[in-house]
Amino acid sequence: MAMQSSDVNLKQEELLNQQYRQSIGWNGKTLKEMREETDRLTAQSGYYAGLRELEFKQSEPIRYEKIFSKLRGGLVHARETAKRVAASPIVEQEGELCFTLYTPEGDSIVTSTGIIIHVGTMGSAIKYMVNHNYEENPGIEPGDIFCNNDCHIGNVHPCDVHTIVPIFWAGEVIGWVGGVTHVIDTGATGPGSMTVGPVTRYDDGYQIACRKIGHDDMLFQDWLIESQRSVRTTKYWLLDERTRIAGCHMIRDLVLGVIAEEGVDTYKHFSREVIEEGRRGLINRIKAMTIPGRYRQVGFVDVPYRHEDVEVPPYAKVDTIMHAPSEIVIDRSGKMSLDFDGSSRWGWHSYNATPVSFTSGIWVMMTQTLIPNDRINDGAYYATQFNLPYGSWMNPDDIRTAHSYAWHFLVTGWSPLWRGLSRAYFARGYLEEVNSGNANTSNWLQGGGYNQYDEMHAVNSFEAAAEGTGASAVKDGLDNAAAIWNPEGDMGDMEIWEYAEPLLYLGRNSKPNTGGFGKYRGGNGYETLRMVWGAKDWTMFFMGNGYVSSDCGMMGGYPAATGYRFEAHHTDLAERFAKQLSFPRGGDPRPAEKVYEKDLKADVKRDKQAITTEAIFENYDLYLNYLRGGPGFGDPLERRPQDVEKDLNGNYLLPEFALKVYGVVFQQEKNGHYRVDVEQTAAKRLEMRRERLQRGRPTHEWMREERGRILKDQASTQVRHMYATSFELSERFLQEFRDFWDLPEDWNLYEKDLDMPTFGSHHRAVNSNKIV
Amino acid sequence: MAKYDKATIEELIDGTIDFFQLKEMLSSFKDPGRFDTYLEILQERVPWEDRILLPYSLHLYVVQKSNGQRIIKCDCGHEFCEAHDNWKLHALIHVRETDEKLQVLYPELLAPDPQWQVIREYYCPGCASQLEVESVTPWYPVLHDFDPDIDGFYEEWLGRPVPQPSGKSR
Ligand SMILES: [Zn+2]
Predict the structure, then answer these.
(1) Which of A275, A468, A723, B154 could form a disulfide with A629 if both were Cys (CB 3.0 to 4.6 A apart)?
(2) Could you write out the DSSP letters of every residue in B132-148?
(3) pLDDT attached to residue A6
């Protein structure tokens, strides 16, 4: 075989490297060789790095646990300390940061508390550097600092910025530490960290692709200048970066201390075993808490981009629905596979996700249910098999995709998994673990401009960290309590938000009827009415589900209420304040009654369009931030009448729904107190059951009619668009659909036949070979 | 390892368990004996004699008939179908696909838009209990939520054979 001249050059370069550089992996290997070896050993044996026995843990369990506790405690401590450096309320108040320790080849060993979705994303960035020969160029040396926020390399959305630092011991990389914070702005087309405007990567803001940004523990001057000039909120950006670096360096010191005490070989061995232990831990938990078998569920969320208040390029003006069907298969060995076959295609919006955000982020949810302990590392990943269809929204086949609010889809795709697992918990009698689902974690109040201090500013209100939670099989969900991505949720103090945002509070109320009804109801959401105050050149927008509920109830419970928006412009509030007239305050319990408009003259938008792009907000304009409720569990007719009475007296339920949905007959006493009549309620409920038997039809009979509607194409364009993109990606899903509805063998639905732009649908074959 | 008496599990099933006890239960390691206690209570409570192999859903059970057949059965006595089949296909359905029907459940503007999503309610033909609700797009195939591997669960995870149809008494 003839040798080409370029090959000769390459050889010479390699020779030079061998002469002058020593490899930085273990035992003379390069990091890339280490990566390949670990993957090979894991694949061959089925055990992480080929560890069939946990020798260290078995022979010296106390020493093993001591090392684990030191590392884990140190990581948690570093997070708590470092977050005080930050000024951003997202980091400092809401705790949206996380630190993780990795092996030299990028597998996570132990992680702190916080946004642990990143347990794998920074590992993915490390693997990228390992596989792209960073060891040679730009070089990996003690004291180096790297930065990444590129989603296709390893991230959820660009606002999660990673700082990654190698840890050296005697000339070898002994591991890496990564820190991540959710920054408030990335310089995207719209202000705010999870903005709506972007439809491509090039609108998504500043992209840092595994870049060396410092050496000798110092940041490069050109990096400091460029990064400061690329985002809107420079002060927060700078302090967030210091937070990450401080935490990484604290953890580096911690690891070096552990090695000094325990010896480097012990540490190396420990770091391997703890991952294998994590893998086994998940399998044990699955066997202890679930039932082998097959679980199927689905999630949907709306992408209503044809509306006039969504200003995007013409090819992105598409109304569609995200489709996330999932199948959990638990086999007899306790291995779990998660299959998302049938998912809809990625799109021209900022809700696309990457495979690593999926495989890594799923643990932020699983730690609240299946593995509620501190042993979160890549072991769980190695114990799970994923099928994320290539070309779907969770595995785009095109580098152009935008990701700034990937959570819009991720939350909706994951929540049904929790419901699936809950069926297993229910069957085993672990009723306390059942969760009927999760709220759509919105609205996201975002925007920016010049704030009340005349500084350029962007806001992203993390009031969304306190949604209603799903009902369990033994009690109601919690009201305004948490978010699926942050179990330590906190709505934050109004005073802090008013300090951070040029938006005054005219109300903050629990919102009735927003949790799903059921024997146990979902937790209600809440709402805050904000008035713009002291701002200049200010814009805001809405981000949340509007036309659909993004999760379902369970075992007879209903899904949570959907979203809507209220905004008011050109108001007469200044005049009202001057004349001491009444003005809108408090909640908006019956949106169609327009209670705010009774004390207001303004141009009001009040509708189901809960996703918008930047709109101008002048001082005295109003914005309603409505945070959603959680789904319900069980038949509402089985809810204890006294619990409905409590709902009524606590303003959690609008009275007319007590009768309509719960079948509860009640009276209001003179003092305003509601009292339920138990006997009349029993009679009413019997009557409602009879009504069900009358209106209910055999499912097979209804299916014949629905089949007729399918054959006649009777569904909205957005619904058909969703199916068309799913069918295009999965022959299996299409065939299952045809089989279920008994459709002709050649029945299909094509995107090109719909009245909708089809950019992005033609390049699949071409792109499928391109993504690295 | 935690262990709970029958009375505690009864309170759990009835939703009357004390909040702090429930919280403690959530934080503790799981009690491996739970399944048997749970099954015993449920078996005592149902008004029929068929043996429960697995609690399937609120009101629904996979039971074993005397001829060995496994079926999905409601606690009211209504028998839906063979255990691997989708019971929803043998239920009564009510679809809320208009604003009017959806606004029985949610105030206007808080309800799903039927052009995007419908709500499907599944009732037991025997007792009219609402056993499941689906919120899906129009045309969506009826979901088969759960198909348990009962043999695998008993034989490999519980380490004992699936009970035989010879009788209810153990
Ligand atoms: Zn029944």
Answers:
(1) A468
(2) EEEEE-TTPPPP--EEE
(3) 43
Size of interface A-B (CB pairs under 8 A): 249
Q: What is the pLDDT of residue B166?
A: 67
For residue B40, the chain A residue with the least C-alpha distance is A429
The distance of Cα B73 from the centroid of its chain, to the nearest Å, equals 10
Q: How far apart are CA A618 and CA A538, in angstroms?
A: 7
B-proximal residues of A, 456-475, CB under 8 Å: 473-475
What lies within 8 Å, CB to CB, of A413 at 6+ separation is A299, A322, A324, A326, A340, A343, A353, A358, A394
Residue among A290, A428, A566, A654 with most chain B CBs within 10 A, to mutate: A428
- Report how far residue A35's alpha carbon sits from residue B11's, in angstroms, rounded to the nearest whole number: 52
Q: What is the mean pLDDT of residues A322-351?
A: 97
Residues facing residue A219 across a β-bridge: A214
Q: Which residues of A343-356 are buried (b: 16+ CB within 10 A; e: fewer)?
A: bbbbbbbbbbbbbb
* A754 token code pair: 């719909």
User: Is A174 exposed, middle or buried (CB count within 10 Å of its CB: 0-12, 13-18, 19+)?
Assistant: buried
Residue with tokens 């010049």: A450
- Between helices A355-366 and A121-131, what is the axis angle to 10°? 150
CA distances from A584 to A567, A576, A589, A609, A689 (A): 12, 10, 13, 22, 42
Distance from Cα B16 to the centre of ligand 1, integer Å: 23
Q: In chain A, which residue's Cα lies nearest the Cα of B34?
A: A429
Residues A742, A747, A752, A754, Cα dihedral to 10°: -40
Assigned token pair, A422? 């809950």
pTM summary value:
0.94
pLDDT, averaged across chain A: 93
- Residue B96: CB atoms within 10 A of its CB come to 22
Helix (H, G, I), strand (E, B) or coil at A543: coil
Whole-angstrom distance, CA of residue A129 vs CA of residue A690: 66
Q: Is A423 close to B145, i.e. CB distance below 8 A? A: yes
Whether residue A599 contacts residue A524, with contact meaning beta carbons closer than 8 Å, is answered with no
Chain A residue whose CA is closest to B156: A332
Q: pLDDT value at position A176?
A: 98
3-state secondary structure A379-390: HHHHCEEEECCC
pLDDT of A553 over the 70 cut: yes
Taking the C-alpha atoms of residue A460 and residue A469, their distance in angstroms, rounded to an integer, is 21
Residue that the structure tokens 């013409």 belong to: A314
Residue A19 pLDDT > 50: no
Cα A140–Cα A145–Cα A147 angle in degrees, nearest 5: 110
Contact flag B135-A431 (C-beta cutoff 8 Å)? no
Contact A564/B110, CB-based, under 8 Å?
yes
Question: What sign does the CA torsion over A130, A133, A136, A138 have?
Answer: negative
Alpha-carbon gap, residue A112 to A97, rounded angstroms = 9
Q: In DSSP terms, which residues pair with A561 in a beta bridge?
A: none
Q: Would you call A696 helix, strand, or coil by DSSP?
A: coil
The domains of chain B are located at 1-45
Parallel, antiparallel, or unpaired: how do β-strands A526-532 and A603-607 relate? unpaired
The predicted-structure confidence for A714-763, as pLDDT tens digits, reads as follows 999 999 999 999 999 999 999 999 999 999 999 999 999 998 888 877 76
CA angle A364–A367–A372, rounded 5-degree value: 160
CB atoms within 10 A of CB B43: 17
Helix (H) or strand (E) holding A56: helix A55-59
Contact B117 A300 (CB under 8 A): yes
Sign for the CA dihedral angle at A695, A633, A461, A158 comes to: negative
